[in-house]
């Protein structure tokens, strides 16, 4: 089956959490909005009056007749299909629970540069962004990392992954989280990484997987930039 | 089976989205933290070193040996068990997608009074809260309502619910959203409700269901208050 991913073509954003498992699995997929007339296709789909299950926002995935939105929901579906999720229901719920926790973390990253409104420019909410980012760095980043470090520690007798014995889509998402934080908050990460050795080791193992390494070096991987969820503003780290 | 719900005992919060389907289904459940020594039980569980699948935050649900956290994940599991979700996988993913969209909306409501940090008092982020709430009211509330109104409209040949022919947990969540917004933003809702007739009619149908009506009139329903996710600050509506 050829999967169709619909997401903004110029950023990694939430779409990247879907691209990574597709790449890791060597799945046949097309990143629709990056192709010719792709943006038009995405927008007309979202505004369609006939589509039964319209998404609230990208990313969304077409898989045959199915149309699925909400990143964690897409991963719940796709993880199972691509062999990147546990085989039984309790394991799948646990993987999904961790993914939803990462989704919360992603939303908080976004709000460090847009604490007031997504509809305003960063420049129109700088003082608020500084305050929010300071709290994010001192309180939230350690809280999330402590949690995932603890999960890795608990699973360490079974594997070096977050759950079970094999790589799952949640490991790929934690990799992406770390990559994004390194881009957005390099000084902070430099200081903190020593403390979260298991998470960083997981990041390294993911980066070294042949298909992921090849993807990261390809033009399919959009570079981090100042339009995405992870953005670098030096003043937010001070 | 007796379900055990763990959530902060003095607020509706995210726990309420779990209480509602349990009540609608007449399920056997205990709201653990509201009982004697309940808070201690909840906290010790969260800090347990032996628990295999520790939650990042409440609410979480114990169902036999399973422990499930993240509100939408709990509802995905519980909806199916309580007969409040579609029977087949595509329908379940669609219900979950809508629930995750409501979860995003809930997070945005929270941030109207805490745009900078959950760890600070409202009083320490009032100017920022005013700006964020203004955008929430003018941009976000209509956007979410437009979406759900459209979903109701699309499903109107099949039923008066959001999906399929029967009540689902997502209908209960939209009911709760409207109740919360009425508490937090009464003037705004008074103006807007005319425009979202299908959503308000759904709210009324949910409120009139015998078990929900009985629950809402019981002491089990914690009143809205100034500690929860939905809070009323008159100045945020100006």
Return the structural class of chain A: alpha+beta
CATH topology of the largest domain in chain A: Glutathione S-transferase Yfyf (Class Pi), Chain A, domain 2
Total of DSSP H or I helical runs spanning 4+ residues of chain A? 9
Shape of chain A: globular
* Overall radius of gyration of chain A: 18 Å
Overall mean pLDDT of chain A stands at: 97
- Summarize the helix and strand pattern of chain A as letters: EHEHEEHHHHHHH
- Percent of residues in helices of chain A: 40-55%
CATH architecture name of the largest domain in chain A: Up-down Bundle
Q: Could you name the CATH class of the largest domain in chain A?
A: Mainly Alpha
Name some characteristics of this structure.
alpha+beta; 238 residues; globular; 4-stranded mixed sheet; homodimer; Glutaredoxin; 4 strands; Glutathione S-transferase Yfyf (Class Pi), Chain A, domain 2
């Amino acid at each position: 089956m050829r999967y169709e991913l619909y997401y903004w073509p110029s950023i990694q954003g939430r779409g990247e959490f879907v691209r990574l498992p597709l790449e890791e699995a060597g799945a046949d997929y097309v990143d629709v909005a990056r192709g010719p007339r792709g943006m038009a296709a995405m927008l007309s789909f979202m505004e369609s009056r006939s589509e039964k299950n319209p998404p609230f926002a990208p990313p969304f995935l077409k898989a045959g007749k199915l149309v699925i939105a909400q990143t964690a929901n897409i991963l719940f579906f796709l993880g199972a299909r691509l062999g990147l999720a546990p085989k039984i229901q309790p394991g799948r719920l646990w993987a999904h629970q961790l993914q939803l926790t990462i989704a919360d973390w992603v939303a908080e990253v976004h709000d460090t540069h847009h604490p007031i409104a997504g509809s305003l420019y960063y420049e129109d909410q700088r003082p608020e962004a500084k305050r929010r980012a300071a709290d994010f760095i001192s309180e939230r980043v350690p809280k999330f990392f402590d949690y995932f470090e603890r999960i890795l520690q608990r699973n360490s007798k079974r594997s070096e992954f977050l759950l079970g014995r094999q790589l799952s889509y949640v490991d790929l998402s934690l990799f992406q989280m770390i990559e994004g934080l390194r881009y957005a908050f390099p000084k902070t990460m430099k200081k903190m990484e020593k403390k979260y050795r298991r998470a960083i080791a997981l990041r390294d193992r993911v980066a070294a997987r042949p298909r992921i390494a090849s993807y990261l070096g390809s033009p399919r991987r959009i570079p981090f930039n100042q339009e995405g969820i992870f953005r670098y503003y030096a003043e937010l780290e001070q």
